[in-house]
Amino acid sequence: MGVYPLDALIPSENKLANNFDCGRITVHNAYETLKDLDILHTIKGSGFYVKTMIDSYINQTFANLYPISTNATVNTKEINYSYCDILFKHATSFSLLIRNKTIARSCFLSTIPIDVSNFDPKNINISKLIIMSGNDDFFNVKTTISYDLFKTFEGLLSFDKFKINSPLIVNYLYNSNNELCLIIITQINDHYFKYTSASKLI
C-alpha cells in the first residue's frame, strides 16, 4: 500500500480490495478501525485522508487536554539513557498550562532529535512534529499506567522540575520491525485530578 504523508488521500475501498484480492468489507472494516484510532478521517464525496492531528493515537491522554489548556511550553535536552538495550539520546518535554500552572507534561525519549522549531503553543500538533523529524515508522503502540514507573524515569523527568504524585502514563512506540523507537512519558498534575473526572482524561 505504501507510505502516505499527512493530509494524503488514500486508495478507495474498491481499489485496495482489488489490489489485495480481498473483500471490500474487509477493507472497509480496516479503514473504520483507523478512523476510530484518529489516524484517518473522511471527506464526504472524496474519500479517506490521513489526519493531520493523530496525537490521540500517539498519546491520547495528553491530546485530550489540548482544548482546555491556555498555553504550552517545550524544552529539549541531550541525554544518554539506555532502555531495553536501546540508547535514547534526546529528550523533548511538552508542558500544558492553565493560567501559568502546569496541568500535564509529556517527555519524549527518542533516538533522533525532534525538530521543535515550528512548535506552536496555540495549535499543538506533537505527532506532526515527531513525524516531520523522521520518526515516522510507527507500527504499534503499547501503553502502561503505573506508579512504579516513576522510579524508572524520575531522573529524566526532573529536568523541568515538575514533581507530582499521580501515576505515569507511558507509551512505547514500535516500528514495523517491532523495534522500540520512541518512549512517551506523560504526567497529569495530581491537583488537576481533583476537579476533572478521569473519563475526560483517558
Defining key terms:
202 residues, alpha+beta, Arc Repressor Mutant, subunit A, Chorismate lyase, 6-stranded antiparallel β-sheet, 7 helices, 25% helix, 33% strand
Description:
- The structure is a single chain.
- By secondary structure, the chain is an alpha+beta fold.
- It folds into two domains: 8-52, Orthogonal Bundle (Arc Repressor Mutant, subunit A), CATH 1.10.10.10; 56-200, Chorismate lyase (3-Layer(aba) Sandwich), CATH 3.40.1410.
- The chain is built from seven helices and eight strands, in the order ααββααβββαβαββα.
- It has helices spanning 13-20, 24-36, 55-58, 60-65, 126-132, 149-157, 190-193, and strands at 40-43, 47-50, 71-83, 86-98, 101-110, 140-146, 168-174, 180-188.
- The strands form two sheets. A six-stranded antiparallel β-sheet has the order 3-4-5-8-7-6. Strands 1-2 form a two-stranded antiparallel sheet.
- The chain is globular and about 50 Å long.
Question: What would a concise description of this structure say?
Answer:
With 202 residues, the protein is an alpha+beta fold. Helices cover 25% and strands 33% of the residues. The protein has seven helices and eight strands; from the N terminus they run H-H-E-E-H-H-E-E-E-H-E-H-E-E-H.
Helix content: 25-40%
Topology pattern, helix = H, strand = E: HHEEHHEEEHEHEEH
Give the integer mean of the pLDDT values. 79
Under CATH, the topology of the largest domain can be stated as Chorismate lyase
Query: Uncertain runs with pLDDT below 50, 5 residues or more?
Result: 194-202
Highest-level CATH class of the largest domain: Alpha Beta
Strand coverage percent: 25-35%
Spatial separation of the terminal alpha carbons: 32 Å
> Can you name the CATH architecture of the largest domain?
3-Layer(aba) Sandwich
**In angstroms, what is the radius of gyration?**
18 Å
SS-derived structural category: alpha+beta
Shape: globular
Please summarize the sheet with the most strands: 6 strands, antiparallel
InterPro entries: Tscrpt_reg_HTH_GntR (IPR000524), WH-like_DNA-bd_sf (IPR036388), WH_DNA-bd_sf (IPR036390)
GO molecular function, one term: DNA binding
Organism: Ureaplasma diversum
Keywords: DNA-binding, Transcription, Transcription regulation
